[in-house]
Amino acid sequence: MLFMPAPVLRALSLALLGLCVALGAARADLVWTPATGWRIEGGALSGLTGANGNRALKMMNDARKAEERGHVLSAIHAYQKVAKEFASSIYAPEAFYRIGQLRLGRKQYYKAFEAFQSEIARYPNEKRFSELIGEEYKISSMLLDGARNHIWGVIPGFRSTERAIAYLAVVVQNAPYSDYAPLALMAEARGSEKLQNTEDAIDALDQMVNTYQESVLVPFAYLELARMHASLVEGAYYDQAETREAITYYEDFMILFPGDSNIGKAAQGLDTMKRVLAESKIKIGDFYFLKRDNYTAARVFYNEAITAYPDSEVASRAKLKLAAVEAKASGTLAPAPAAPKKKHFLLF
Q1: Is the whole-model pTM more than 0.85?
Q2: 44 and 142 co-located in one domain
């Protein structure tokens, strides 16, 4: 193990402190006013010195002047040069931000999103991080609601729900602990359902309720999960896995959020799903009773129908069928009347 003398340790500590102070100064704010142009406030470092610093500042001012005059494309190109040539300076994040805003104004939603994402990826410690996430969420939401990306800022392109969903996933990945993450997952579920990708919608909602349990959107997510599982139910003759999932989410909703205004809707949905499940059990019981004379299996499924939806009309029918099974099993079931014999007539 290497031991350092105390004077060396103190020197290193002072050096680190100086570095922290320098980094704090480097995190200055870049402010623009018509009178002074761009200037640095709250710090002394721009990441550039000498001729490079003067050149970068001049390019930023020229870009902003073009922007103010309405020469948007010229401004975008100038900001792009700043972001490329002076990537390590304080001007680069601002250049990406201005590009994003200008692209957004031209309804070039894809390129605007790319500009904001470039700023987030390259400068994650920026003070405006939350604002950038908000801009990305706004673009995603507009595309989800049918906004069209404009090619060259002029020609409306096709609507793209798929692109909106992909952007929403990026929002969640960028800021999983932000207020935008649960909103993005809810929107992602809505978009997936719009594309009839119900399973993807369920996955997004499932992630939402399991990851963001404190969100005010959780009750609605539970109800949506129940509804979507119910939408996959094909009827009493088919597999009832989705029916059981829907029942679980309806029951969880009613237990966890008893005072919610949608409690009546949940109760109605729960009754419908229980009825489907109970009907399915009766149909399977009928198969074993009427087609296979398997009284044991028939009893099991009729009893499951009663358990699935007790105190219902379906349960009453299941009880009658159970009585019929017991009667036939014990041999006391009255035989069915014989079919009348056909009469034959002789024609002479």
Answers
A1: no
A2: no
